[in-house]
Amino acid sequence: xxxxxxxxxxxxxxxxxxxxxxxxxxxxxxxxxxxxxxxxxxxxxxxxxxxxxxxxxxxxxxxxxxxxxxxxxxxxxxxxxxxxxxxxxxxxxxxxxxxxxxxxxxxxxxxxxxxxxxxxxxxxxxxxxxxxxxxxxxxxxxxxxxxxxxxxxxxxxxxxxxxxxxxxxxxxxxxxxxxxxxxxxxxxxxxxxxxxxxxxxxxxxxxxxxxxxxxxxxxxxxxxxxxxxxxxxxxxxxxxxxxxxxxxxxxxxxxxxxxxxxxxxxxxxxxxxxxxxxxxxxxxxxxxxxxxxxxxxxxxxxxxxxxxxxxxxxxxxxxxxxxxxxxxxxxxxxxxxxxxxxxxxxxxxxxxxxxxxxxxxxxxxxxxxxxxxxxxxxxxxxxxxxxxxxxxxxxxxxxxxxxxxxxxxxxxxxxxxxxxxxxxxxxxxxxxxxxxxxxxxxxxxxxxxxxxxxxxxxxxxxxxxxxxxxxxxxxxxxxxxxxxxxxxxxxxxxxxxxxxxxxxxxxxxxxxxxxxxxxxxxxxxxxxxxxxxxxxxxxxxxxxxxxxxxxxxxxxxxxxxxxxxxxxxxx
Length: 571
What we know:
Elements: E1 6-11, E2 18-21, H1 25-29, H2 33-36, H3 47-61, E3 67-75, E4 81-90, E5 100-106, H4 108-122, H5 132-144, E6 153-160, H6 163-170, H7 172-197, E7 200-207, E8 210-216, H8 223-234, E9 239-241, E10 244-246, E11 250-256, H9 263-279, E12 285-287, H10 292-309, E13 315-324, E14 330-341, E15 345-347, H11 353-358, H12 362-379, E16 390-394, H13 397-400, H14 405-416, E17 423-428, H15 429-433, H16 437-448, E18 452-458, H17 464-470, E19 475-478, H18 480-484, H19 490-505, E20 509-512, H20 518-526, E21 531-533, E22 541-542, H21 543-546, H22 563-568
Parallel strand pairs: 11-12, 14-16, 16-17, 17-18, 18-19, 19-20, 20-21
Antiparallel strand pairs: 1-2, 1-5, 3-4, 4-5, 6-8, 6-11, 7-8, 9-10, 13-14, 13-21, 13-22, 14-15
Helix pairs in contact: 5-9, 6-7, 7-8, 12-14, 14-16
């Protein structure tokens, strides 16, 4: 089949030059007959296509009267690449004009049309994301390339809560704007996952308000929870629609690649998990595990048990100390909640805090943590003027959105008999992204009460310096991701030095988290970091275990890294 003007040419095998070319070559590639006959044929073929061209050329030459066809890119005289269809025919057995006969047709327009049609068939027209067909292809490729027994691929399906309401109330155009912005954030999340976790990521739009995130990374155990958390963080910033900010939440279904699973099965499992999540309310996450009914029952039991966990005295605190490298003494501790479940054993916060947040139990749970952390600080004499120390607790956006938070905090400290200066709250940058004036007022009230405020995971968020200027921050905690690369990554080391210098210039306490090795500790000390914490110094432990260690200098403790503890403990 011909496409526009065709060109006939003969390639001499002895010289590698075209011994004959028809005049129509000028219309196809811009060269005259004389010009093109002085240039080796190999110079015209795109480097990426040269191997395939040479292979098919060899195949044709192996057979008298052999014939084959290939599509390659050829250089136009203008320098542009044109897609041409080459039909090769072996004429070496003929007496005259011996060589390879070429029929050349410019099929650039056809190729572009086919590529565009393929793109349309495999991408979503509104957002430009992959569609269901391309997603299934990517899943299939990932499954074929993995040892499925140890596959590290996770699929998340997300359905935007109340999307129909946005469409009905604000109109379809605004609904489309929401979908495009949601897609933009998913792309940004994909870039973050590629950068921070060296992950392979595909983002897709499947139906009106249903999206998917396919992620492959190195850690099967933590990958699903980490990606879900990244997704939650992505949605903390309100969506601005028609000049008004709106909170947007999603229900998420998570499926992990299993032995002998197919792309369709993995997509089905994620859908089943997502629909179960939707059935339990807005802003829910559900994990599929081949026993979705049993898992669903267990999830419901967790939520139900959590309601009674406080009354049953099943919650406990573990404490992770931070040390002053100048004195070697304990400078502060961070209180971390655990759940001593009567049947499932000790559970880290990752197992129940999300349920507490989605079921509006986080405020009550957070208050329990504050009450008991304050009591422990008194028992440990943290407000002793001769050796002042501080107790830190983590607080969520929902807690800070409560107008009663600051007063309840003050009452807890009064009830425990603790000086406010011995107590502090930790907030992440994601909390400060929530557009709620009450959060700013709450933080101001906490600061005025005499309690400290720490910005946790510093440097991993969006506008760290802005928050230092806007809020009354007393301390910053260098994220453990920077400390982890301290001795191997010059960029991480530079960030740690810069953050420590910034903190000192602003008269802020700076705590480097995540110290796991003696090398990291030595590097931090050499950089002038005076406050450090991490598993290499002391993992989170119960009050009874930490009490005899309160006055044991760091130098007297041997740094031990228990890899089992590191891999199983939950902050």
